[in-house]
């Protein structure tokens, strides 16, 4: 991503912020640390402490009445609707992003019915892509990975913002990185990340059929994600994790190395390394079993 300057922002929105000259490396939400310097926004004061403690944030879209709440070194771009301005800028960056011509290894095996973007895709050695697969922009598939029939990789996620000007659909300009020897199952959907957090499938991780793998999900190596699992945005999954069929992982949850999520579980809080969880809402498995036995008496 090219640097974001005051001239770029003023030109896009066609007015003068009267906030001086600035240049930042990227955009990000209050928790992001993806760039040394960032432009962010403040819409809800519950994120105020997180924003002020993030030293990478240098410029903020903010309502005039909230300016005095921000760190003194932050450049404040005073607007009536910070959400609309921030995500309109993000959309502009996504649309204007420069992408190189797609590169496909000569040893990759790709079915003739697969659809692959002409730009923004890298396909490594010995990759197998089955019938009716769709690979969109901003996807890198590393050596030995398998994409099963009907899977879609690199789609924009479900991200819509309510603003004073109506609902704004947010474009995604992050990547999907499919690591070596991993597998994406039949008719699964892999959403690409935002610029501040790519979507990553770890080495030798195996994703089953009909899995929804949302934007910014990052999993480690050798994970097993079984059919019909739904993994919400920005989930972090360690190594050697099992996620059972029809389970749901809420957004921004972390699941530690070696954890085990049983079938149908609904996970709404972090799961420590090595723990097995069950239920809706998911709790430690043995606690669930004790509760189940007690209720049966």
Model description:
The longest helix has 15 residues, at 82-96. A 10-stranded mixed beta sheet has the order 8-11-14-19-22-25-28-31-33-34. Strands 9-12-15-20-23-26-29-32 form an 8-stranded parallel beta sheet, with no helix packed on it. 14% of the residues lie in helices and 30% in strands. The chain has helices at residues 6-13, 48-53, 82-96, 285-296, and strands at residues 4-5, 23-24, 26-27, 38-41, 57-62, 75-78, 103-104, 109-110, 115-116, 121-123, 128-129, 134-135, 139-141, 146-147, 152-155, 160-163, 166-169, 176-178, 183-184, 189-191, 199-201, 206-207, 212-213, 218-219, 224-225, 230-231, 236-237, 242-243, 248-249, 254-255, 260-261, 266-267, 276-279, 282-284. The model has no long low-confidence stretch (mean pLDDT 93). It is of the alpha/beta class and 297 residues long. The chain has 4 helices and 34 strands. Helix 2 (48-53) links the parallel strand 4 and strand 5. It has 2 domains: 4-96, 3-Layer(aba) Sandwich (Udp-n-acetylmuramoylalanyl-d-glutamate--2,6- Diaminopimelate Ligase, Chain: A, domain 1), CATH 3.40.1390.10; 103-294, Hexapeptide repeat proteins (UDP N-Acetylglucosamine Acyltransferase, domain 1, 3 Solenoid).
